[in-house]
Amino acid sequence: MDFFQCWFINPVVVSPTIAAVGLSFYGYGFPIVGSCIEIGAVQILVVIVFSLYLRKISVLGHRIFLIYAVPLGLAITWAVAFLLTEAGAYNYKGCDINIPASNIVSEHCRRHISRMKQCRIDTSHAMKSSPWFKFPYPLQWGTPVFHWKMALVMCVVSLISSVDSVGSYHASSLLVASRPPTPGVLSRGIGLEGLSSVLAGLWGTGTGSTTLTENVHTIAVTKMGSRRAVQLGAFILIVLSLVGKVGGFIASIPVVMVAGLLCFMWAMLTALGLSNLRYSEAGSSRNIIIIGLSLFFSLSIPAYFQQYGISPNSNLSVPSYFQPYIVASHGPFQSKYGGLNYFLNTIFSLHMVIAFLAAVILDNTVPGSKQERGVYVWSEPDVARRDPTIAKDYGLPSRVGRIFRWVKWVGL
């Protein structure tokens, strides 16, 4: 683990990998915002004004505009959308939003149906259809189905996700003025993410569990790194998950407003990824070339795979986040082994995979000093392990620690 952490995974590898995750959604963000520009653009501008121009304004000793920029922006934009909807700004003569698009005959209504769906706030029936209380249980959506091709893809994606987590762990340790996490702590965190993903699969959530890099920004803004605060937040989220109306309320947020928020969040994710370069010599020509090539190839190579075999005049319209999963049918790998074609075409269509492969190969083959690569910062856990105060920051709670004392990967 020490060798893997110090030589293969370091700031020069982590930075473009995380940044590529945010950049990969560039084709989804503003194109959706542009479908209702007067709401989506307001959403983005309000969040930017709060988080940047009003960030130093304090109310009762708290910088609420910086800390609550996203929820405040959402509330204000939702109120604007509600007023426009109620004022009839998106009512068109003879058009009904409840009629499926396939049943609309009038060309006039066909021209406005997309705008009505994106701009109005009353198109979702999630609040009405969701129950007040719903208790989730394992296998509620049926027995999980295993496909080895997708399993291989997810193994690679999980590896990239672990790289993201390693960067988040180190960044968090600096924000709370602690020593860098030891190899045992890193293994414990990644192992817990794997266990959580297994539970997510049993509950049928459709997504795995990983460390959310944006939460590192939350720690930096709120200056709150207490375990008790995290535990309380987790408890509240678990309780809210049992209230169906809460989920219905979140699901009823107009898509254009979600896209506006995600434009900000993905931009933050990209910036947080690049901020890991502060651990290395960011001005080094070696690092500049590696980062530049990794980021450019992370956008260009997937674009080549996703566009391969598609006619320029094709009217195929698929959201960007679905592109890697349809590319298997027309990607450049077309051998007689269908499963291998699916795996290779899908893997090379994922932006973060390309960024990771380019960065890890170049960084570990191009000569560079430890200071230049940032390895010396992340190799300090050997010293930290001998520090008795490290147990206070990373040690498991006493009762939990006694139970899992026999498991080596939970150690320091």
Query: For the terminal residues, how far apart are their CA atoms?
Result: 12 Å
How large is the radius of gyration?
A: 24 Å
Structural class: mainly alpha
Taken from the alpha-carbon principal axes, the silhouette is globular
Quote the average pLDDT.
Answer: 79
SSE order, one letter for each helix or strand: HHHHHHHHHHHHHHHHHHHHHHH
The main sheet comes to:
none
Low-confidence stretches: 1-6
Indicate the proportion of strand residues: under 5%
Oligomeric state as shown: single chain
Share of helix, binned: 55-70%
Q: What is the β-strand count?
A: 0
Tally of helical segments: 23
Looking at this protein, list some descriptive labels:
412 residues; transmembrane transporter activity; transmembrane; globular; membrane; mainly alpha
What secondary-structure arrangement, pairings included, does this model have?
Blueprint: H1 2-8, H2 11-23, H3 29-33, H4 37-53, H5 64-67, H6 69-86, H7 107-119, H8 126-129, H9 148-175, H10 183-203, H11 214-222, H12 227-241, H13 244-251, H14 255-274, H15 285-307, H16 323-326, H17 338-347, H18 351-365, H19 370-373, H20 375-378, H21 381-384, H22 390-394, H23 398-403
